[in-house]
Amino acid sequence: EINELDHFCGGSLINKDWVLSAAHCFQNTAASNVKIYLGHHLQTGSNPNEISRIVTRLITHPSYSTTTKNNDIALLQLSSSVTFTDYIKPVCLAAAGSVFGGGTKSWITGWGKLNFVGDDLPGFISFSSTESSSGSPSLLLHSTFPSHHPSFL
């Protein structure tokens, strides 16, 4: 069971009813034990534009591998639809079949560590621009793995 005060993974709102996240975050977790916070910018203190939703359905990729982390993707259905605001908007998703050549720019966001030393996490959400690798369908590679598979995000 997940303590409602513990942050454990990030995700991206993809429409008014669904959040996209990583499958490894939800191993052995019931959807009803997950609460999603949207418009959450600071880990501590006031977040006046924040709303929350309970997850009613959790779908992990049927080919997700806990060993290789291939297909590490999950969809979370929210308990009620979100009204978009200046602070809560869905991310832009590429159309099906889109191909990104080397150098395609995109944005990455998250609450994770800013360096490899220590366990300190930032108190605010971080973001950065990045470019895809030539010949790679991946825009963001898991840096903890020595090589990557095309199913990685």
TrEMBL record:
**Which Gene Ontology molecular-function terms are recorded?**
serine-type endopeptidase activity
Name the UniProt record assigns to this protein: Zgc:112038
Tell me any Pfam family this protein matches: Trypsin
PANTHER family for this protein: CHYMOTRYPSIN-LIKE PROTEASE CTRL-1-RELATED, TRANSMEMBRANE PROTEASE SERINE
Per the UniProt entry, what species is this protein from, by scientific name?
Sinocyclocheilus rhinocerous
Which GO BP annotation is one of this protein's? proteolysis
Matches recorded under SMART domains = Tryp_SPc (SM00020)
Q: Identify the keywords attached in UniProt to this record, alphabetized.
A: Disulfide bond, Glycoprotein, Hydrolase, Protease, Serine protease, Signal
Under the heading Gene3D superfamilies, the entry gives:
Trypsin-like serine proteases (2.40.10.10)
Give the InterPro entries listed for this entry. Answer: Peptidase_S1_PA (IPR009003), Peptidase_S1_PA_chymotrypsin (IPR043504), Peptidase_S1A (IPR001314), Trypsin_dom (IPR001254), TRYPSIN_HIS (IPR018114)
